[in-house]
Recover the amino acids of this structure.
């Protein structure tokens, strides 16, 4: 099946639009899946996300991250939302998730509204995918159409959550391999990591970076040295001290979805080792070129980010397509 996706980037009154084909092997998703069963679903999610992001702009990054962590573990099936029970070991306590993932209550909030209007119709997986798109738009990012029709899984995978998700200190080659495993290219990887332009990071995830090669990648720039001193005030060197302290990964425009994160990498100031490696790693010949392109051309970044988000959102859980369900409560399998 081939879907024609149209993307409109809203900037002032100028709205450049891109169209592209998203090809896949018998993709079951369509743009009008809920046209007759829940025609208001997109409006409901958009309006609620407007309130949620207005309450705290950081909620945008939280929802995008939650979507990413869902899709990288047995496909985009809402498995990350499942609470642990006596019969199900969930993904929330896996090491990449336990100290970083939030947003579950946001999804609960939207789900309750949708269930009151269209009970038993809209999957949690679709809800999360649509919410991630709307979150991006609400902080200045691009628009893309979201194909829908996902089913919620009845299972979760603690082990895959532990192994499939990239970590902040992971090497570039290993991270590229994890994206390839999901059917995502190097260009997809560099574009998707651009979402860190609105992200926050905990001290525990950037301590090794700021007490490691930060000075080397910034070439001892005095301005960068001042920034480093601020980071070290936030994050003490001793492990366990200030682990949960947070700071923005983009220290220039932390609440605006733009290409600033790539300029940060060009300056050698990437907060996470895994991010900075895309520009300074000896293995980063291809990624360095892409980072430079997105730093120079924000339209190219927006276009590729939109394509890559659709591509990631189409990662399938073939099992849930066969015996999946529409959960009434995103935290629990239907009984």
């Amino acid at each position: 099946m081939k879907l024609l996706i149209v993307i409109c980037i809203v900037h002032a009154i100028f709205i450049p639009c891109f169209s592209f084909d998203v090809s896949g092997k018998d993709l079951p998703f369509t743009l009008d899946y809920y046209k007759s069963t829940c025609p208001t679903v997109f409006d409901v999610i958009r309006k609620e996300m407007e309130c949620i992001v207005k309450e705290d702009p950081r909620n945008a990054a939280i929802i995008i991250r939650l979507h990413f962590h869902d899709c990288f573990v047995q496909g985009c099936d809402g498995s990350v939302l499942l609470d642990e029970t006596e019969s199900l070991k969930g993904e929330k306590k896996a090491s990449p998730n336990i100290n970083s993932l939030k947003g579950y209550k946001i999804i609960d909030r939207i789900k309750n509204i949708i269930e009151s209007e269209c009970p038993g119709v809209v999957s949690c997986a679709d809800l999360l995918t649509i919410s991630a798109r709307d979150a991006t738009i609400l902080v200045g990012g691009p628009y893309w159409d979201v194909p829908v029709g996902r089913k919620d899984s009845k299972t979760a995978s603690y082990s895959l959550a532990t192994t499939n998700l990239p970590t902040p200190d992971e090497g570039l080659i290993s991270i590229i391999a994890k994206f390839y495993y999901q059917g995502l290219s190097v260009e997809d990887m560099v574009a998707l990591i651009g979402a860190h332009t609105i992200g926050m990071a905990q001290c525990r995830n950037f301590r090794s970076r700021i007490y490691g090669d930060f000075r080397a990648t910034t070439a001892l720039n005095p301005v960068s040295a001042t920034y480093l001193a601020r980071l070290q005030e936030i994050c003490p060197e001793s492990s366990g001290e200030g682990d949960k302290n947070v700071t923005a990964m983009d220290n220039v425009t932390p609440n605006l979805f733009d290409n600033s994160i790539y300029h940060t990498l060009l300056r050698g100031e990437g907060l996470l080792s895994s991010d900075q490696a895309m520009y300074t790693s000896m293995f980063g010949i291809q990624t360095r070129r892409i980072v430079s392109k997105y730093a120079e051309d924000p339209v190219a970044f927006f276009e590729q980010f939109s394509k890559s988000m659709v591509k990631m959102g189409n990662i399938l859980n073939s099992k849930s397509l066969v015996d999946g369900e529409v959960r009434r409560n995103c935290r629990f399998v239907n009984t």
User: Anything to note?
Assistant: Residues 148 and 167 are 29 Å apart (CA to CA). The chain is about 50% helix and 5% strand. The chain has two domains: 40-165+313-323, 190-311.
